[in-house]
Structures are given as C-alpha cells and as structure tokens.
Design a protein that fits this description.
This protein has 2 domains: 47 residues; 217 residues, no CATH class. The chain contains 9 helices and 11 strands. Strands 3-4-9-6-8-7 form a 6-stranded mixed beta barrel. By secondary structure, the protein is an alpha+beta fold.
Length: 288
C-alpha cells in the first residue's frame, strides 16, 4: 500500500539524518507531555468533584436580566429576601471576592480574600483543619466581629504553626483574629480561583470599603449565592419557586428589579463559569 511505502521511506530518512530524528523525537515527546499536562489540569479543575459535602445537592443562584446577556451575581438585599422566603433549601450563603492588604513584619502584601455569610462553611459541610468556622452572630453586626479563616495552603505559607488559632492578622490596617484553618484542598467553589482568607460579610466596611454602599442597593449585582437543596427537592422544583419569589420582588421593587429573574445551576456545572471572580471585587455589575 502507498501509505506503508511512504511510512518506510520516512523512517529510513529519519535514520539517515540522526540530528533531524532527535529533533523530531523531542518535538513529539514535548507534544505528548503538553497534552498530558493539559489533560491533568482539566481533570483537576473540571472532572474532580468539588471538595465539599454532598456536592450533588449544592446549587448556585444567578440573576438573569433581559437587558444583559449571560448570568450575573445577585444583589445583597435580594439575597436576604431569597434566604428568608424560600422553602426549598436547607440553607443559602453568599460570598464575594476582595483584594486585601495584609501587613506583616512591616511589609504589606496583597492577598485574595472572600467575604462570606456566617453559614458558608456549614452549608458546604466543611470541617476546618484547625479551629472552627464562623458563628452566625459573627455575621450580624457591621464591622463587629473581626475574625478570619485562612486557607490550608496560606497557613503553610505563613509557617504552618498549629498555634495560629487566636493569633492576629493585620488586614487593611485592622486587626483580625484567626479562628480557623480551612481543610486541605479547599479553595472555594470557583475553579481557577484560590482565596487565601475568608472573613464574615458583615466586615465589608473594613475589607472592601469602596463597595460599602452596594449592600444597600438592589440594583448592584456583586454577590455570588450558593444553596443546598432540601432532601427530595429537585433543581427544577427549586428554580420554579425561586422564579416565583423573583416575580414577587419585581412587583415589590419595580424600579430596580424590573425584568429580573433567577437561574439555578448545579455547583458542579457552575464551578468553571468564573462568575464574580477576581477583577470584579471593585465593581458591581448592572447598576443603572
């Protein structure tokens, strides 16, 4: 066959030109190595389940708006209403990213943080490697509970001292008490983004003062929302109720919630969408 004749000719040519053969071999090996690396990254980032409890029962909530394409974060006031009025979730938590200046030994470095509602770690069924998670009351009083949880990797970067619980970190010029170290391998539920520090949402005045007013604005979309389905409740059933609640809020606040609704997506599917990741920490979407 012509193909086999051409293949034999190619092999003989490579053997007669050892330098070219070596280059070709290295190129092929590098190509295989790159493909293997890419597949490894895809497996790590997309195929492995999220390191949270019963991830198949966790969903993310997005705001849909007829004037804007794609899925958007949520407003804080709407989140509070959804949290109080739904009957399909065992819990609902909010989180948003923030760039934080951490001062240590006289030097200030930038770290990636997340402001999270007090039930965030409990909702995700996470047990800290050291210390404890946030208490509900630590997310009630504005700037009243300066406490922080650090990621396992960041704890290692800080020296890996098991006595870190109770110590102080200076964040944006304010003293925060470390109450916990997140479990190894947990860096949030958004793929490709690795928060190093978590603080309660109520501390937003100290952690992200530039967006302080957003917490009062229903039009400001900056808050990512995650929820856990009650046993026996499907994603479609939960979405139906949430869309009903969205219509009620649209009627109650027509100037700011006009033509806005809610879309649900399983957390495992939504994890690669990057909604509200770094770069959005200083800007709220769709304020008009």
């Amino acid at each position: 066959m012509v193909i086999w004749r051409d293949l034999r000719y190619a092999i003989r040519s490579l053997i007669k030109s050892p330098g070219f053969f070596a280059i070709a071999f290295i190129a092929i090996a590098l190509g295989i190595g790159v493909n293997t690396t890419i597949l490894g990254i895809v497996n790590t980032l997309l195929l492995r389940p999220l390191p949270i409890g019963h991830s198949d029962r966790v969903v993310q909530l997005f705001t849909s708006d007829s004037h804007f394409t794609g899925r958007n974060p949520n407003s804080y006031p709407n989140f509070l209403d959804y949290q109080k009025q739904n009957s399909v979730f065992t819990g609902m938590a909010g989180y948003t990213f923030a760039g934080i200046g951490m001062t240590r030994a006289g030097e200030t470095t930038n770290v990636l943080g997340q402001l999270v509602s007090g039930n965030y770690f409990d909702l995700l069924e996470l047990h800290p490697f050291l210390g404890r998670g946030f208490l509900p009351e630590e997310d009630t009083t504005p700037n009243g509970h300066p406490v922080a949880i650090v990621s396992y990797k960041f704890w290692k970067k800080l020296g890996g001292d098991r006595n870190i619980i109770g110590s102080t970190l200076t964040l944006n010029g304010h003293a925060f008490t470390v109450i916990g170290v997140a479990p190894a391998g947990f860096t949030g539920i958004d793929i490709g983004v690795a928060p190093e520090i978590w603080t309660p949402l109520a501390m937003h005045g100290w952690i992200r003062p530039s967006g302080d007013e957003w917490f009062e604005m229903r039009r400001a979309l900056f808050l990512n929302v995650v929820a856990r389905l009650k046993p026996g409740v499907s994603v479609s059933a939960a979405q139906a109720q949430m869309q009903t609640l969205a219509r009620q809020l649209e009627r109650a606040y027509p100037d700011v919630n006009r033509e806005r609704s809610v879309a649900l997506s399983p957390a495992e599917k939504a994890k690669s969408q990057g909604i509200g990741g770094p770069g959005n920490e200083n800007s709220a979407q769709n304020i008009s």
